[in-house]
Specification:
The complex is a heterodimer.
Chain A lengths: L3 E4 L2 E4 L5 E7 L5 E7 L6 E8 L2 E4 L6 E3 L9 E3 L8 E8 L9 E2 L3 E5 L1
Parallel strand pairs in A: 2-11
Antiparallel strand pairs in A: 1-3, 3-8, 4-5, 4-9, 5-6, 7-8, 9-10, 9-11
Chain B lengths: L2 E3 L3 E5 L4 E8 L6 E6 L6 E6 L3 E5 L2 E6 L4 E6 L8 E8 L5 E3 L3 E6 L1
Parallel strand pairs in B: 2-11
Antiparallel strand pairs in B: 1-3, 3-8, 4-5, 4-9, 6-7, 7-8, 9-10, 9-11
The chains are: A mainly beta, B mainly beta.
């Protein structure tokens, strides 16, 4: 079955540590996204990528980094510069950002700080 | 600024009908989406409206009025599994998605 796989489901970060969240899709979608979800707030866009080897900052990119070396993969690194990383992180994909296409989401990663 | 407003929480009874409202103020409009999200899980697509009117899909319907900056999601014959958060999102003039904070729907027997 096609879909988006995020791992791990739960992740803990120590002070000063970088952590990487995995996102893989086998839907053959061009566009991929990373969102952050905090209680009582709407989804906020961290980074997005429309094609391989290209990505753009979203609304809250500071303290995060991404890569898009393969169409299927869009990992997110939460760096030590992100001072408030505790949140639920959602990866999504769509056929193309400018299309009238729905987003397909992964099951999310809950990141907490030790 | 751009803004999407939804009620924070609603409660309804199994078998009944509930309407979840969404009002928006955005820079341009290129469609409105509704997603369902069970706690700790992935949001899943419910509906998309770009023209005024009602779109019906089984027990779920979605309505849009662009002149009023208003949409609602109507859920009929409520089931316990409909307990979830419902997210409203608007695509603006640049095709960027603006998300509401979501409405948590609690279904009681």
């Amino acid at each position: 079955d096609g879909g988006i796989t995020q791992s791990p489901k739960y992740l803990f970060r120590k002070e000063g540590q970088n952590v990487t969240l995995s996102c893989e899709q086998n839907l053959n979608h061009d566009a991929m996204y990373w969102y952050r979800q905090d209680p009582g707030q709407g989804l906020r866009l961290i980074y997005y990528s429309q094609i391989v080897n290209d990505f753009q900052k979203g609304d809250i990119a500071e303290g995060y980094s991404v890569s898009r070396e393969k169409k299927e993969s869009f990992p997110l690194t939460v760096t030590s510069a992100q001072k408030n990383p505790t949140a639920f992180y959602l990866c999504a994909s769509s056929i193309g950002q400018r299309h009238n296409e729905k987003l397909f989401f992964g099951s999310g990663t809950q990141l907490s700080v030790l | 600024g751009q803004n999407i407003d939804q009620p924070t929480e609603m409660t309804a009874t199994e078998g009944a009908i509930v309407q979840i409202n969404c009002t928006y103020q955005t820079s341009g409009f290129n469609g409105l989406f509704w997603y369902q999200q069970h706690a700790g899980e992935a949001p899943t697509f419910l509906s998309y409206n770009v023209l005024d009117g009602l779109e019906e899909k089984g027990r779920f319907s979605s309505f849009l009025s662009r002149s009023k900056g208003y949409s609602y999601l109507l859920l009929k014959e409520l089931q316990m599994k409909d307990s979830a958060s419902y997210l409203c999102a608007v695509r603006d003039i640049d095709y960027q998605l603006i998300w509401g904070a979501g409405t948590k729907l609690i279904i009681k027997p």
